[in-house]
Amino acid sequence: MVASLPMKSSPKRKCCHCKELYLPDYRNRHHQRFCPKPGCRAQSKADSQRRWQQKPQNQNYFSGAENSTRVRQWRQRNPGYWRKKKSVPEEPLQDLCPTQAPQNEVLVVPDLSDALQDLCFLQPAVLVGLISTMTGSALQEDIAAATRALLRKGRDILGPRPGVQNPVHDYDQASPVSAAASPRAAPV
Question: Where are the domains of the chain?
Answer without folding.
Answer: 13-76, 110-181
